[in-house]
């Protein structure tokens, strides 16, 4: 829950324009041996080439996902939330909190996040083989590597990881 309180510390202090003491907030954290990082906006902008259209991987209901490469050479995927609202703020905080706690081979890992101003960015491990949706319904669906028994095995395994 420390991560969740850190996220709300950032968002509430910006909304109220108060000078709250959030200095206890670490730039790195961990949970059960897995680490995540509070990124600087500059790092993410450099990694994604200022959210270049050429780096765009996809778009969903809550935001756009971009490919990036960190200064250390690691590939990342960055979800940039579309609009800020109380609901979007809560969705962001919950997604970061859950990803910080859950690790499974069939789920993307959290690398970190950025929350500042009107920007909310979630940084994931990059999945080089495209998205699950592209394999189920997109241009990779014809390869039929994910037949129904394999799809069910992935779903059951993912559910076990969340349990």
UniProtKB/TrEMBL annotation:
GO molecular function, one term: protein serine kinase activity
Enzyme Commission code: 2.7.11.1
Membrane topology designation: Single-pass membrane protein
Any one GO cellular component localisation term in the record: plasma membrane
One Pfam family of this chain: PK_Tyr_Ser-Thr
Protein name stated in the entry: non-specific serine/threonine protein kinase
Catalytic activity: L-seryl-[protein] + ATP = O-phospho-L-seryl-[protein] + ADP + H(+); L-threonyl-[protein] + ATP = O-phospho-L-threonyl-[protein] + ADP + H(+)
Main localization (coarse): membrane
Compartment annotation: Cell membrane
Positions of the Protein kinase domain: 51-163
Keywords: ATP-binding, Kinase, Membrane, Nucleotide-binding, Serine/threonine-protein kinase, Transferase, Transmembrane, Transmembrane helix
Top-level enzyme category: transferase
Binding sites annotated in the UniProt record for ATP: 79
InterPro entries the record matches: Kinase-like_dom_sf (IPR011009), PERK1-13-like (IPR047117), Prot_kinase_dom (IPR000719), Protein_kinase_ATP_BS (IPR017441), Ser-Thr/Tyr_kinase_cat_dom (IPR001245)
